[in-house]
Amino acid sequence: MNFFETMERVTGVCLNDVQREAVRCANGPLLLLASPGSGKTTTLNMKIGYLLLEQHVAPQKILAMTFSKAAARDMSERFERFFGTLTPERIHFSTIHSLAYKIVREYFYKTGRQFRLIEGTRDLQWNKKPILRNLFVEKRKTQPTEDEMDELFTYISYVKNRMLDGERLSEAPCSLTDAAEIFARYEEFKRRDGINVLVDFDDMLTYCYEALRDDDDIRTRYQQQFEYVLTDEGQDNSVIQHEIVRLLAAPHNNLCIVADDDQSIFSWRGSDVDKLLEFPKVYANATVLTMAQNYRSTKEITDVADQFIKRNKKRYDKKMFTDNGHGRKPIIHNMRRYTLQLNYVVEEIERAEDSGDIAVLYRNNTSAIRLVDALEKHSIPFYMKEVDVKFFRHFIIEDVLNFMRLSFNDKRADILERVYPKMNAYIKKAQMTQLLSKNDRTTSVFDQLATNVHAPYQEQALRKAKKKIRTLKDLPPKEAIQLIRDELGYDKSLQRTAEHLKLNEDRLLGIVTQLQYIAEGLPDLTAFANRLKRLEEIMRQSSEKRAGVVTLSTFHSAKGLEFDRVYMIDLVDGVIPAPDDIKDYKEGHEAKMEEAVRLFYVGMTRAKTRLELLTYEQNNEEKTTPSVFLDDVKAILQGEKIPDFDFKEPAPERKAVVTNKAYQQKKVARDIPDDAITKRSDLHRGMEVEHHLYSKGYIKRVSGDEIELVFDHYGTKQFMIDFCLQKGLLRHVQGDD
Fold first, then answer.
1. Same-domain pairing of 40 and 148
2. CA distances (Å), 479 to each of 409, 417, 525, 530, 717, in order?
3. pLDDT for 668
């Protein structure tokens, strides 16, 4: 009885022709392209069994690697189920990082150095995050936001995993203009004494590569130990991980990489689909096989996904197919408003007999906040594949809560200190410092400040701020947040922050809008603060997998999973594809757009029998446009040719009634406000005006073609008078009602 007949009898696994060919391809380099649901892990385990039982390779000569601990554990457990009764020998299943740790430990010992891990430890003194935070403060003289810390972490990881240095550091995408300088300081700090080196997870790969490249003894020993190297999820490997695998596999090159170029979705952490596409060039005698049979999904889902991914140009040519039966075609729901999308998903889960085989997928973790809020309010349990509670630590949430805290006690100078630059009260830093030094908790901070003003406009602004702050505590939470946005000028502050720090303005404003939805229906500000705590607690508790509950996941985290029913939500331009994807595509760069296509494809191919794609035309006061990817799906379903991407503005008939002043500000360039100053004769020295970007100020000088304005937080600014008048950039300051 041959190997495959034995396996079928003992394990119940019957391989198809391509899978058998992959298993038999024992020696030399092999790239095994595995489409979604094609049985790649089973095939990989059968290949290891074949090496042991048919090729009589010693177990210690085989190295099987994957990216995550969970994947390595899954592969090991499956191997044990298949071959536990056939061979007592254990195979070395490992993540790349764990192998790297072992090599680096030997390398440092040999070179007389020691290293201390600064990631994944509880040692707060020697921890990557506070170290980077301190270096940021040292460089910028200000505390970083959570968004800036995330940017810095992503930048450093990208640089390390893409093996960038010198002038190539500029290739790493990052909105922080001084990221390269902070990175250089970070590297210097970690190696400052040359003997005791600080090492983060990405350094583990860097030093592993260095050891294999430069130390002949270490490289030769590991190459001789592992004559057969197999890697799963090869499309997720970063550039440096590919190089480590290449060095380990040499000189035998008995290398098997199981991957899918169509599921390469982690470029932001250093993976590069080009490494898979170049495999036949790197290994001249390479074999490339394609496992294209999908055992997971119905014919309708498989066919649509296969045609959709063919839009991409940088990929291996293959056709995914299935022998599974027919089912429902994927459904596109174009809702009028976001809330209708949310209500539909909640109702579908409520009606389901078993929600344990249902997944709701989204591109960004922020999409989960309102979904979690709605599910909890309907007493629907859920499991979150990736719990991210950074939303509740965001500076915007703290700002809004601090405004609310101040409304209960406006004698707290320490609270005002946190928000005074973010409200239109014209409070100067020197005034704030003096206020704090008084430590007077018996008088309103606004009354105290009013005793030390030098211009009538500031006294009026303080009086308005006091009145509006005190109004907050008596308003329903949703209305209170709107007052903070509009009357206290918080939206304008966020617009300035976005411009100054090069952050996404819509994303910042969207966080405030998320808070308003959470606040809806709550009786008071205390209930709102408690609701935020409750939601954070619920999300933290949802990380434990439970049977019979719906799964919530990002597209990224859902890779490798499968569900009977999948609902993909928030499918609008600006979410998927993201703004940067669209911008690069319009400028002739298609790499990001192709990855967005792959990400959408990953989401679709999680579904076994039912796939529903949800979009909407209006979110709050903002018009939205359904994702262009839905145009592709619609064309495929109708048997038409996939159209070229057409990024349109939302149709006029979809126009929402705009009430939020933050969104009104975006229209300044094309719609001049009714109260805008359009005549030069209306401009007078000492006059108080409002600038569309810098908020309130007064006219210091009108001379020739220029006007000079003084703003509290921005100092003196000069503008061209004609430009201000033509664009309606200046407005009359409205009196207090």
1. no
2. 19, 24, 10, 17, 34
3. 41
